[in-house]
Amino acid sequence: MKELSLAVLGGAAAAAVWWAVLLMRRRREKDVTGRRAQVCVVLGAQWGDEGKGKLVDVLASDVDIVARFNGGANAGHTLEVDGKKFAFHLLPCGMLHKRCLNVIGNGVVAHLPTMFDELEELGDPEALGRLAISTRAHVVLDSHREIDGMLEAEKGGGALGTTKRGIGPCYASKANRNGIRFADLKDGSVGEKVRAIRAFQAKHYPGVSEENVSRIESYAARLVAAGAIRDTVALIHEALDRGDKILAEGANAALLDPDFGTYPFVTSSTTTAGGVCTGLGVPPRRVDCVLGVVKAYTTRVGAGPFPTELDLDDNGPGHHLSTVGREYGTTTGRKRRCGWLDAPLLRYSAAVNGYDSICLTKLDVLTGIPTLKIAVDYHLDAEKLPRVHFPASLDDLARVQVTYVELDGWHQDITGCTSFSQLPSQAQNYVRAIEHHADLAVSWVGVGPGRRDIFVMPGL
Ligand SMILES: *[C@@H]1O[C@H](CO)[C@@H](O)[C@H](O)[C@H]1NC(C)=O
Fold it and tell me: What global pTM score does this model have?
């Protein structure tokens, strides 16, 4: 594992990128306190699968703490290091960096066997020593996973397309106030608390299997022995007092947020910037910088309205995005739905999250499409919607009429480009058009699948 941390993009390059962001932020906001920026958040800006991993990885090589604040093992990014692939579902991706402490915050839910499997896949016996799990985080039980499957089957055609990892039912237990927390694993009360929740489940979900308490206890003993269950609120505030840099890594994406997303086709935990405060115990004023990750087009998994959706089956641009972009789920193999970039969606996402800037990913996938489109406005009942307005009603969202601008495409391979000026003029125009129509500043552009296929924009 020693070579790993060295292979990560080169510390100096990553540090330069990181500081550039912070300087940009300071120029904009004039940090009157003179305090250097410490907390930076990376969020998915669309419906997920934007490719956050690469940006998080670039930034993680220069921080002290990488923290997850929401979701469970339903996140997913793969990092490729020295030809070896690492899939991250629950663990923060700072696990690949020897000097990083990795925090699983109180807003997260974790299934113990899944977490230990993921730890083992890292092939690093010391990995557990770099992990701190909040005493206030919730434990996903096997019964939560069973209930997830039952509920999904019951919904049949109207299924939400959940990953059946028990995440929704675990957050439901949290809200019902009979959930199991990591504190319970530490203070020895887990057996009694599992009995209580099992009594509840037996009544409301008859047929759900018994929980294997001794298995939970044996995992708990390993975590306790490693000192991994911690008061992460105290830990994070001590780190802030020391001047440490913290990268908060969001799971899922803005349009999957239970409040701001396309409800009910959403996930169960806050995926937007506010989740950093509620999921880590970091106060709003301490969040210095929010970065969005935007795919150069739009994809969506599962059901629900999708205004800029393209047909995947004809030989047109939808088919191109799906095949060239390899837009299918890594675990399920399910095809993702694909469409044009949606600026009204991004303006809404930016309004909710306040992105300082964005990382535009997978621009190379557009290579070879003769004419590109960007959605610039929605009309509903012949009336143009305000600049920041995304319909809450899915019926309305399904009915919106989309206005597009058309731009010339390019055919040159851009995967080797290391700067904006190397892009063909049409690709430059496309990036600038996104900034213009979505009111966003692009700071990074991803031009290929490799970890180095990303460059910083001029004037950052
Ligand atoms: C419970 O888990 C333990 C491992 O911790 C295993 O040895 C045992 O067979 C399991 N019991 C049941 C009933 O599955």
Answer: 0.91
